[in-house]
Amino acid sequence: MNFRFWPSLVALIFFLGIWQLIVQAGIIPSYLLPSPAQISSTFLDLRADFFSQFLSTMASTLWGLGLSILGGLLTALLFSSSRLLKEALLPFALFFQTVPIVAIAPLMVIWFGFGAPTVRASALIVSFFPVLANALVGLDLVDPQRLELFRAYKATPWQILWKLRVPGSLASLLPGFRVAAGLAVIGAIVGEFVGGGGLGGMIDSARTQQRPDIVFAAVIMSSLLGLILVGVIHLITILLLRYRPFFHLHSFQQGSNNL
Amino acid sequence: MTGSEAVIEVQNLTQAYPLGKGRTKTVFKNVTLKIEPGEFVAFLGPSGCGKSTMLRLISQLELPTAGKIHLGLARSSIVFQEPRLLPWQTVKENVLLPSQLGKNSSSNQVITKADQLLKQLGLTEFSEQFPQALSGGMKMRTALARALLLSPELLLLDEPLAALDEQTRARLQMELRGLYEQSKNTTFVFVTHSIREACFLAQRIFIFNPRGEQPEVVEVKLPKERTTQAYDLRETQAFFDETKRLTALFHQAVKE
In this predicted complex, what is the ipTM? Predict the structure, then answer.
């Protein structure tokens, strides 16, 4: 482990120790706040359940994220090829983004029924907009001097798009994917609250059984899922930049404050 | 002047930009100039007197307010003050870029030409590297190779060496003049505010003035072969005398 993680590791152990003591001393009753030891033992007892629900949530998240990346990119390309279309539809996309996912999740159940389709749709809806917005920003980021160079060589609009705008948009697009990955996990969990299944379904049924230990374990698992997805996107970015320096990694790491 | 057809004929050209509130800024008015095939011409003048604007008009990146520009050739290319390379493409890919734009296509012939230009400009060992690993001079060499890829009949250069350090600039002046002397009938138009640079590179100099009036034309009285000698022409008394004469003419021309 890298040395720079030691301070936060020590802080974590300290924090968990205090938590354990507070619950053991009975300052907060364990039916409200289970101790770390309790949460761990619940997790170990139910590990088969946790793993299968984790995989189920992950599958739905990846479905939603994949579709939103595909759809967001295609929409952005469409918008950048037609100004009229962009001006006509972008305001609706902006409005759509402000609709809280929790409020429309029940509608998903009505449309898609209980189960995976609702969860995927919910993950798709929340992660679509960051992909679209960052792709649009990226495509517009084009350096005017390089654009002039392309014009001087009589480049067609198609050539300007594929050889200049698209490669140049990656600096904004990849951080967009990362934000979308984090949001897709949230979307999937919310979808599972209403549609059932996965870690969200576990949390929801633990609520009815008054089992905060299961809720805590499931929450930790879903955070882990978000971390894994964000980490994978970061890894892909690093490998891509090693292959071709589309932009400086430095600017990518600074962008992580968005999440 | 010879009777052959000019490469560039600029007639009564006026360029003005609106400043808002009905006022305009006139860069130059009623300028007429003629550039012959195979010439090396410099546009010399202080900042803001329209020499870059003239180059951009010739390259059709801008349209004139009034007047006519006649280009008597098919292929031209341009080099800017910044190299304007694509950071995600290697040096060689950057050089090959013009062959992938417009209606051009990358043939084996073009790739051979790119290799030859890379060698000529000392870039062969960098050809698979990305621009970020290159010095300013190497980046500009890449931009030059890119501009020469499609064997242009007219090469427009907009202060390409202005951002480089002095030693690199002197070396690239030599290489640029060398490229001109080896080229067959390529016309070079070079924008600069350095009298020494214009004097070393060009055969004829158009001195632009801040009044926006017709530029003064001066012939440079130096031999056509300037890079083949064992000595550096720029260190000779003849060159020193010529820059002295041009400096006097320059100050006379740009006087308000």
Answer: 0.89
